[in-house]
Amino acid sequence: MKLIDLLFQRNMPRWIIFFIDLGICLFSLILAYLVRFNFAIPKVEIDAFPFVFGVAICIRASSFYFSKTYQGIVKYTSSKDAQRIFIVISIGSLVFVGVNCIFYFFVNKTFPIPFSIIIIDYMATTFLMISLRVMFKALYLELTNPNKEKRSVIIFGAGESGIITKRTLDRDAGTKYKVLGFIDDDIKKQGKQLEGSTIYNIDKLDSLLAENDVSNLIISVQNLPPAKKQQIVDICLNHDTKVLNVPPVSNWINGELSFRQIKKVQIEELLERESIKLDKENIQKQLSNKTILVTGSAGSIGSEIVRQLIKFNPKKIILLDQAESPLYEMEMELFDKYKQQSYEIVMGDIRNKERMDNVFKTFQPQIIFHAAAYKHVPMMENNPSESIFTNVSGTKNLSDLAVQYKAEKFVMISTDKAVNPTNVMGASKRIAEIYTQSLGKNSSTKFITTRFGNVLGSNGSVIPRFRQQIENGGPVTITHPDITRFFMTIPEACQLVLEAGAMGTGGEIFIFDMGESVKIVDLAKKMIKLSGLVLDKDISITYTGLRPGEKLYEELLADHENTLPTHHKQIMIAKVKEYDFTTISTSIDELIDMFSKQNNQTIVKKMKELVPEYKSNNSVYEKLD
After folding, report:
1. Where residue 168 falls among pLDDT bands split at 50, 70, 90?
2. What integer pLDDT is reported at residue 143 of this predicted model?
3. 228-260: b (≥16 Cβ within 10 Å) or e
4. Is the pLDDT of residue 588 over 90?
5. Whether residue 166 is found in the same domain as residue 296
6. Do the beta carbons of residue 385 and residue 598 sit within 8 Å?
7. Cα–Cα dist 245/222, whole Å
8. What residues act catalytically?
């Protein structure tokens, strides 16, 4: 152990490495002469040794000194170190050739160093200097981290990224992992060896995990289809094998992968769907060189809409929000990433019509994306007046000003909770839909509504809450064992918003294909497994009961509605009941006027009159139905 500590635990002094390298050069030169002359070196060559060896040592010593090859830590030798040695030795050997030429043309018409010696010396020196470093590194890795103590790992993907992943594991002794094999779909690769590990078909994954104690499977393939990733994760979770992800190449530090960058697969990745195909030409035509207002631009949806809009070169984006700190963070993000883009940060409350009037008068927005809203069901169930004040009155302020200032389009972000609403929040959004849709009938401004379900990772969504509960040791709380929800990623939802906004001609309520509904308890169980924990052993799930206004199952269409297809398979148009603007406007004004009296019962009763399909669920307002 003392020898190991002496050799490996401390970095070898640079001067020792320098002289060892010189010793390798001397050995290589002697070996070159022995091989060249069949181990019988002529006396004339031996007489030239003092000069030849002196020149060789001077050239090699100078090249090592100026290139700093001796400064690398030998036990961490990398491909870059080998590349540097190759270049330095090559340059030194070319200098030998130059010395030969000088002597031949300017001194005595002879070559002091035979060219065959130079070639043999070049190959021997390069081989020995690189291979001895690699051998030293391998010895260090084995002695400090024996193979029998390493945990087995499988790498999915036998391409360039997979090779880099394996080399990263080999390089980082602290990881204590050994690669059991690769998994790859390419039939041509299957059964072959890659850096000492066998490449298997994905059909072999289940048996490999069953027959071996595999701690991790690392997915090295970029842009793996979600269905394939889901398949891999399900197989691994059945065998208590953790699944890790190699980050995109753009995230590698200085172009080199570090083991610490390989992270656990997140539940959001397993709920993703195939990438959306957008009609970018039409969207570009609609948005290019336009002044665009985004309300709620510091929120999860509004901020992503801004990020998506920037790609289409608008004339200016107005970011409006009342949340100071999140809006400041958004401003810093734009400053760091999109300095060349024109944008304006505006603090303001959509409920304040005078403030909104000044915004419209100052910037004259041509397109409005209205994402500002209160969206938490239990919060709005306890505060109906605030729901009306923001979701209804705020939307009315903006839509009226859009008409007044002759905006081209007004795209409202709604929710699936507006369909057959069972809570105050959903009913308030349905009322806002009704107002904007009826207003657009007699206006040059095109009012378009987009309606979708839960988005992954949005503020207050279930996944961040589950993640926090798991990190805190549980329990994970679910309202009901049978509750289901639709999920969509934030970028996916916002891309569809832009697509729907571009295709809309006014008056449409666009609904998005949310895919299959997800049982929340299954989602929680999978998140627990992905965290490497065991349900009911490391962490438990408890049921708290449905919250006021909460549905077991969410819908995207009301009972008496149907849909029309569009050119985009993930976007449909809902056929909904139409309202007379004069009648509905009067009723909504009456509802908004009720805010000042702060009588929740009266407010909710009026909401039910406006939206007959609004039936409260698990709420104090059920008695009003």
Report:
1. confident
2. 66
3. ebbebbebbbeeebbbbbbeeeeeeeeeebeee
4. yes
5. no
6. yes
7. 9
8. 417
